[in-house]
Amino acid sequence: MDIRLLRVFRAVVEAGGLSAAQSVLDTSTSTISLHMTELEKRLGFRLCQRGRAGFALTDRGYLTYQQAKRMLNTMDDHFDSILSLRKRLTGKIRLGIVDSLITHPHSPLTEALRKFNRLDNEVEMQLLVNERSELERRVLAHDLHAAISPFVRPVAGLDFHRLFIERHRLYCGRDHPLFGREGAISRTALALHPFVLRSHLGRADEERFLDMNVRATANNMEAMLTLVLTGTYIGLVPDHLARPWEEAGDLWAIAAPELEQVSHHALVLPRSLDLSTAAATLVPLILAEVNAAALTEEPPLPMKQSALRRRP
Q: I need a labelling partner for 63 at 20 to 30 A (CA). Which of 104, 140, 158, 230 fits?
């Protein structure tokens, strides 16, 4: 009974209210309200404010939601492992990725999923796109089994397994004054033009581009590409993402080697939690698809040190 009530509570919070949770739980608002009241009686405190003023969690309600979500996810994973004893993979795999990796020639995910789906399984695959810091947070919270994102710095409790590198070059759109200009352009000259900052990289980008004329921010690569294509801004875009637009004559790669960057993308895994059987089956399939010959750049020192600590 308690677990069922906690599942109702989680669904209400994630839907944003009792009415919105009706379709998720396939029951009436009045029934959901009764379940919420029963759970509050069992816990001995109020979980949320609800009524005409809207839905809002209390402080205790927020903490209860965080703990309940982690407990239910862990319980589901263990139950999935028990079911897998019948030799067919079951349950859910919750996987996160950053945006715009589909055009990367060395991204291992599609082929790994293709091989996984050839196995005898009844697994529900949940694939979430989000920014790096949020993916790391959700892997730590056990909301995700794993994630694929760029390595920026070590994070306590997480392991980073290098998958591929991504080259970011400076681009401008067709209507930009620098479009079609050959030869290297100095950083001082580039600072005269409106620049797009990658807000999802936080202080790392802010400190690196303090001298640039920052006039816009983008929290993912699709947003960056959209702004650069306007012809107003210059910004760093992954070369694999830019290539179709460059070939169509809509983007121009500016010769600015000082601003170019190599991003090391990794498979992010929790260090302290055994994966479900299904997730533990997928992880080696992803790692097996790594094209080692394409890893032409040395990993950052913190990433290399993290890998050394991980070895038995």
A: 158
